[in-house]
Design a protein that fits this description.
Blueprint (H helix, E strand, L loop, with lengths): L17 H7 L11 H13 L2 H13 L7 H16 L5 E11 L3 E7 L3 E2 L2 E3 L6 E10 L17 E5 L11 H10 L4 E5 L23 E4 L1 H12 L5 E6 L2 E14 L3 E10 L9 H21 L5 E8 L2 H4 L1 H9 L5 E6 L5 E6 L7 H10 L8 E3 L8 H6 L4 E7 L2 H5 L13 H18 L12 H10 L3 H6 L9
Parallel strand pairs: 5-6, 6-7, 7-8, 11-12, 11-13, 13-16, 14-15
Antiparallel strand pairs: 1-10, 2-3, 2-9, 4-8, 5-9, 10-12, 14-16
The protein binds zinc ion (ZN).
Zinc ion (ZN) binds next to helix 7.
């Protein structure tokens, strides 16, 4: 586990003297925008070879949902490493340990007014607890003020995840903290999507045992309880789980294409997923696109000016553990940029994520790929809660693709329906074609004047895009500046 101390961060500088001078005299190996024949080969190959689709099917159907540290996760990693070998690429495992969580049998059942097992899924880091029964009370959106008129001590709090009017919704971890402070014994979150779906996720981002037993329940059964409680009727529920928190050993998978320069571009996608479904969209597709990128680079652009490192991160869903470990382990590496792919469908543009120096480059790529429908062009808006986050917080420029998924594909996010049948081959081909060109060009463009931000610059960047508040709530704000 790696808690960041930004202010202790050592910024390393590039050795830009004699070596760089010598290298700058070499002919460009892959001139910017100049080698369209190689682009065209890559793009064509992204559409005529669909091994990445077959790999994704194998990972989804033979390994299944890949929670960090689980047997399915291990099996999926083995399949991936073997398939990379068949491309002639030796990938290595970079092991790490992290606060993990092992799912056991769990049950949430109504006992009053009728006996019925509810469809539920516990949030990760809920630690095993004995069966208990308690009355349920409704606390609306879970804000502190909702507790003024209700007594929740020793009871189970029911909270809706629908959007509160004129307020931003609380994170589930905030709802848990507030309910625990008021003496609640457990908490039920009513999912805001209808269609009998729950929502897997974590109870906190620190990997600590949850303050309360916390479960996601369906919109339909949640609204039913809400109606009964608003009508002053008694509702009682039992809860039980055998899941447990444990420190786990696992690994990221890394493949490297050494360049002329050691300065590198990291391209990442999280390999782990939730386990009710198969983690096909989140993030089997990102993992498969990364596999296809390896294939394209191996065949069409194995040697570039910058080093390219492809990383399948583990433990993203449980708390970004793999990317956090990677950034610490590679702190001395000179990383030009990190490109993240998470639920990447058909690209519609690029995201410079606040690192302005990459905007002209990305615009150039978007303009030259005129046959693709990159209608979003280049946006410049960083987000949080995927593997780029730790790179960004430690000052390393990050970027991603804007992408489209058909409605049905994103609908089953963190649910049982995230299965291979949802994946369109087209997502993989479209994304691999574009990311292939993007990475190939970036790895040979020496004109970009980029630098790693120091802690002060990074804190300012986060504030500029109003991400500081959320980072503080997630307990991911490690800057001294307020
Ligand atoms: Zn994801």
């Amino acid at each position: 586990m790696s808690f960041i101390r930004m202010n202790g961060l050592k910024m390393h500088t590039r050795k830009t003297t004699i070596v760089a001078l010598f290298l700058s005299l070499l002919p460009a190996m892959y001139a910017v925008g100049g080698d369209k024949s190689r682009w065209n080969e890559m793009i064509g190959s992204a559409y005529t070879d669909n091994r990445s689709y077959a790999l994704l099917q194998q990972i989804c159907d033979e390994a299944g949902g890949r929670v960090m540290g689980s047997p399915s996760n291990e099996k999926g990693m083995s399949i991936l490493v073997e398939e990379l070998k068949s491309l002639g690429v030796e990938a290595r495992k970079e092991p790490f340990t992290a606060p993990g969580w092992i799912r056991g049998a769990q049950e949430v059942s109504m006992t009053v007014p009728i006996r019925r097992q509810l469809r539920s899924i516990e949030l990760a880091y809920v630690d095993h607890h004995e069966t208990f029964e308690a009355p349920v009370v409704f606390a609306e959106f879970g804000f502190d003020e909702s507790y003024a008129s209700i007594d929740v001590a020793g009871k189970i709090v029911l909270v809706t995840q629908q959007r509160p009017p004129e307020k931003s919704p609380l994170l589930r971890l905030e709802c848990i903290e507030i309910a625990a402070r008021h003496g609640a014994k457990g908490i039920l979150f009513i999912n805001d999507r209808n269609g009998t779906m729950t929502l897997e996720g974590v109870s906190n981002f620190e990997g600590k045992p949850s303050l309360l037993p916390a479960y996601s329940i369906t919109f339909e059964e949640g609204k039913w309880m809400e109606r009964l409680l608003k009508d002053a009727q008694e509702v009682r529920v039992t809860m039980k789980t055998e899941s447990r928190c444990a420190v786990l050993s696992t690994a990221n998978i890394v493949a490297t294409f050494p360049g002329v320069s050691k300065r590198k571009i990291v391209v990442g996608a999280h390999f782990d997923s939730w386990d009710m479904g198969q983690g096909a969209i989140d993030n089997g597709i990102g993992s498969a696109i990364l596999f296809d990128l390896v294939r394209l680079l191996k065949s069409h652009a194995p040697k570039n000016y910058y080093t390219i490192e492809l990383v399948w991160f583990n433990g993203e869903e449980l708390g970004l553990w793999g990317s956090k470990d990677y950034v610490v382990a590679h702190d001395k590496d000179d990383i030009l940029a990190m490109i993240n792919m998470d639920m990447t469908g058909t690209p519609t543009g690029f995201n410079a994520m606040g690192f302005d120096e990459f905007i002209p480059f990305l615009k150039g790529i978007a303009t030259q790929l005129s046959g693709f429908d990159l209608k979003d062009g280049v946006v410049n808006q960083p987000g949080l809660s995927s593997d780029h986050q730790e790179f960004m917080l430690r000052g390393i420029p990050t970027m991603s693709m804007q992408a489209h998924l058909d409605d049905d594909m994103g609908k089953y996010y963190h649910e049982m329906g995230d299965t291979f049948d949802k994946v369109s081959k087209r997502y993989l081909s479209d994304a691999a074609a574009i990311v292939g060109v993007l990475v190939g060009e970036l790895a040979n463009d020496r004109s970009i004047d980029s630098h790693r931000r120091n802690a002060k610059e990074t804190a300012e960047l986060m504030k500029k895009f109003k991400l500081d508040d959320r980072l503080k709530k997630m307990k991911e704000w490690n800057f001294k500046e307020q």
